[in-house]
Amino acid sequence: MTRRRAAPARAHSTEGTSPATPARIRAALLRWYDANRRDLPWRRSRDPYAIWISETMLQQTRVEAVIPYYDRFLARFPTVEALADADADDVLGLWAGLGYYSRARSLHAAARRVVDEHGGALPASADALRGLPGIGRYTAGAVASIAFDRPEPVVDGNVTRVLCRVRGIRDDVKQPRVVERLWDEAASLARCRRPGDCNQALMELGATLCIPRAPRCLACPLASMCDAHHSGDAEALPVKARKRAPIAMAAVAVWLVRRDKVLAVRRPPHGLLGGLWELPGGELGDHEAASVGLRRALRERVGLAIGKLEPVGEVEHGFTHRRLRLQVFRARAEPGRVKRDGFDAHRWLAPSAVAALPHGGPMRKALALLEQD
Predict the structure, then answer these.
(1) Pairwise pLDDT comparison (26 vs 321), residue with the higher score
(2) How far apart are CA 192 and CA 194, in angstroms?
(3) Given the DSSP bridges, would you call strands 322-332 and 281-283 parallel, antiparallel or unpaired?
(4) In whole angstroms, how far apart are CA 26 and each of 35, 40, 137, 185, 227?
(5) Options 1.10.1040.10, 3.30.70.3180, 1.10.10.10, 3.90.79.10; CATH of 247-372
(6) Burial of residue 223, with CB atoms counted within 10 A of its CB: 0-12 exposed, 13-18 middle, 19 or more buried
(7) pLDDT at res. 19
(8) Are 76 and 25 a contacting pair, CB within 8 Å?
(9) Which of 277, 282, 330, 326 is nearest to 306 (CA)?
(10) Is 22-236 assigned to CATH 1.10.3470.10?
(11) Terminus-to-terminus CA distance in the chain, angstroms?
(12) Known catalytic residues?
């Protein structure tokens, strides 16, 4: 009797999996989502404006951090008309601490467009939404599907991770062809009666179970259909090219006093920390001493000379691609008129009023340091 030779083992065993059709994935996702979704404030609303605000805030920001900002923002600006009529400083002030301030500026500009061009009603189609400032492919898909039940896909970091693992996508997710495949996969899932819930289920799964490290595969509704789970390499996915090291920046700032008033300056509306207030100063040149650089920056950027410098200390702040080391000083301003080069406004304020201006992380840390001094 001749024995059959055993078949060679497969590199990625999928024994026990079920066919991962969009319909099967969608059904499992929605069953799980209906039973397990978190009770989040924006999920209690069908108001397209409120959903738009939440989706904008949630970009690159944790849910726990967003909730108090979302509640305060809607309390202050409950309608798109209220946001459109608001002063830019008020909008940025409520956003302070949430980061990525271009989101707040774009929200404000988009609200004015919605009022002026759409009669105060947020458009329902993804294409029309993408015509508004600050609304890209993801936000348009999220608002169109969640608020208007349009079968539009979403792809964010959580969705990318889920789809790469389920579908066994092992190529760099930054490659254009991979990006488009992910959007195609998400679109196939969103073509259903509950596109908003399906999109939220994908994001929820990535945020709670299909997490970057130690994913909770045993509790996952897609485990039986997941390529990465059965291949044992879930933590290795998605594949991402190595990030570049952040660029080091050195800068100086000064608590500059004249006749018991402190000088604050506002950055231009575009670029890093655009539209936010800060203490005057600037970046240091290569190998430039902080005291020398500060005097130079003040001459060039606000046209003022200063007296004796008193060092206060140093703070650090991380941006997406930069790492800032900021040295902080105190000084008195010599007589002279303020000019502005690189700032679009300035104010001499009572010391107690400086912290009330909308400002970013570096300024917040500098003010905390000055309070301790």
Answers:
(1) 26
(2) 6
(3) unpaired
(4) 14, 22, 21, 11, 16
(5) 3.90.79.10
(6) buried
(7) 62
(8) no
(9) 330
(10) no
(11) 91
(12) 55
Tell me the pLDDT band of 272, cut-offs 50, 70 and 90.
Answer: confident
User: 18: Cβ–Cβ under 8 A, 6 or more apart, which residues?
Assistant: 24, 224, 225
Alpha helices by DSSP H, listed for 58-175, are 63-76, 80-85, 88-95, 102-118, 126-129, 137-148, 157-167
Contact 305, 332 (CB under 8 A): no
Contacts of 336 (CB under 8 A, 6+ apart): 303, 304, 305
Backbone angles phi, psi at 268, to 5 degrees: -60, 160
Q: What pTM value is reported for the model?
A: 0.79
Cα 140 to chain centroid distance, Å, stands at 15
Question: Residue ranges of the domains in the chain?
Answer: 22-236, 247-372
Element (H, E) at 371: helix 361-372
Backbone angles phi, psi at 302, to 5 degrees: -130, 0
CA distance 312 to 373: 7
Map tokens 């044992």 to a residue. Answer: 232
* Burial class of residue 121 in the structure, from the number of CB atoms within 10 Å of its CB (0-12 exposed, 13-18 middle, 19+ buried): exposed
Max CA distance (Å), the chain: 107
User: Contact 306/333 with Cβ under 8 angstroms?
Assistant: yes
Residue type, 310: E
What are 342-360's pLDDT values in tens digits? 899 999 999 999 999 999 8
Tokens of 254: 């000064």
DSSP string for residues in 207-243: HHTS-SSS--GGG-TTGGG-HHHHHT-GGG-SB-PPP
| Token duo for residue 270 | 């575009």
pLDDT in tens, 185-199: 999 999 999 999 999
Do 22-236 and 247-372 come out as alike in CATH topology?
no
Task: Write down the residue that tokens 């606000």 correspond to.
Answer: 302
Strands 322-332 and 247-258, how do they pair?
parallel
Query: Within 10 A of 233 (CB to CB), how many other CB atoms are there?
Result: 14
Residue 1: the pLDDT is: 39
